[in-house]
């Protein structure tokens, strides 16, 4: 049985509902987040994503707005009544980030950053642990144990694809992890069809497959102008495409 994670009175993850989390790869500016907040609120979506600390492959590419980005979200969250999930990269940022973030995201590149896992394990906030890009399912579940053993059992696992020889897609979305984890653990399981495919046109079929497999939700990247996004524009939906995704999923 999946253990339900209560985010607030209205939001329960893992209760049999299909939760949609959406937002940009990275928080870029207030106008962008304002537009996205308004859209989510219109569509009844209750959790917004947006990276402030970005783990970029190239140290010279946009690294995110850091704490300033998180601070910007305080207003947006309040105005549109949203909860906010964002990645943390460094245990030293946790204390400051704790004031703004409702769900801590541990990214693929940090799935086995054991000191970071232990630190989020000491908090009382839900943690979404993304699958390492080269991690087996067992390694991923053991990484979750690092969080749980510190006392935090509010863990959500997120399948985001693994690296294989296939290079048409950015990653190979290993969707069989969903039923496997449902059997093996009692954590809610999400799917990230954006990083899982790297291609906008594959987000809808991947999301439908996730739902058919009884995933507890998806986390998808959206942007008001994906072609101008500072990161991951190729795998972000524009507003029209996102509205269509919601229609197709219900
Ligand atoms: C992200 O969600 O923006 C991200 C960096 O994902 P991942 O850690 O799965 O690559
Ligand atoms: Mn991204």
What would your notes on this structure say?
The protein is of the alpha/beta class and 250 residues long. Helices cover 34% and strands 15% of the residues. It contains 9 helices and 10 strands. The chain has helices at residues 30-43, 67-80, 94-97, 114-121, 137-148, 177-184, 193-197, 203-212, 239-249; strands at 5-6, 12-13, 19-23, 47-49, 83-87, 103-106, 127-130, 155-159, 189-191, 217-221. An 8-stranded parallel β-barrel has the order 3-4-5-6-7-8-9-10, surrounded by 6 helices. The protein has a two-stranded antiparallel ribbon with strand order 1-2. Helix 4 links the parallel strand 6 and strand 7. The radius of gyration is 16 Å and the shape is globular. It starts with a strand and ends with a helix. It binds phosphoenolpyruvate (PEP) and manganese (II) ion (MN). Residues 25, 51, 55, 107-109, 130, 160, 192, 195 line the site of phosphoenolpyruvate.
Short description:
The protein is of the alpha/beta class and about 250 residues long. About 35% of the residues lie in helices and about 15% in strands. It is built from nine helices and ten strands.
Task: Note the main attributes of this structure.
single chain, 250 residues, alpha/beta, two-stranded antiparallel ribbon, binds phosphoenolpyruvate, binds manganese (II) ion
Low-confidence stretches: none
Radius of gyration in whole Å, from Cα?
A: 16 Å
How do the strands line up in the largest sheet?
Answer: 3-4-5-6-7-8-9-10
User: How would you describe the shape?
Assistant: globular
Roughly what percent helix? Answer: 25-40%
Q: Which small molecules are bound?
A: phosphoenolpyruvate, manganese (II) ion
- Spell the H/E element sequence: EEEHEHEHEHEHEHEHHEH
Q: State the distance separating the first and last CA atoms.
A: 24 Å
Count every beta strand, where a strand is a DSSP E run of 2 or more residues: 10
């Amino acid at each position: 049985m999946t253990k339900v994670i209560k985010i607030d009175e209205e939001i329960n993850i893992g209760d049999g509902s299909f939760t949609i989390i959406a937002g940009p790869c990275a928080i870029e500016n207030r106008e962008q987040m304002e537009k996205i907040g308004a859209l989510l609120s219109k569509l009844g979506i209750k959790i917004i994503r947006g990276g402030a600390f970005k783990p970029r492959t190239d140290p010279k590419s946009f690294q995110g707005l850091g704490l300033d980005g998180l601070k910007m979200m305080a207003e947006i969250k309040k105005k549109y009544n949203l909860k906010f999930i964002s990645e943390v990269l460094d245990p030293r940022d946790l204390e400051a980030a704790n004031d703004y973030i409702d769900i801590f995201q541990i990214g693929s590149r940090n799935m086995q950053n054991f000191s970071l896992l232990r630190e989020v394990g000491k908090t009382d906030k839900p943690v979404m642990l993304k699958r390492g890009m080269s991690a087996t399912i067992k390694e991923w579940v053991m990484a979750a144990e690092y969080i749980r053993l510190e006392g935090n059992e509010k863990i959500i696992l997120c399948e985001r694809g693994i690296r294989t020889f296939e290079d048409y897609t950015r990653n190979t979305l290993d969707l069989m992890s969903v039923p496997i984890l449902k059997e093996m653990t009692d954590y809610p399981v999400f799917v990230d069809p954006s990083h899982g495919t790297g291609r906008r046109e594959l987000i809808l079929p991947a999301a439908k497959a996730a739902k058919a497999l009884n995933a507890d939700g998806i986390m998808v990247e959206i942007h008001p102008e994906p072609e101008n996004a500072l990161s991951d524009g190729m795998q972000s939906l524009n507003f029209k495409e996102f509205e269509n995704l919601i229609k197709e999923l219900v």
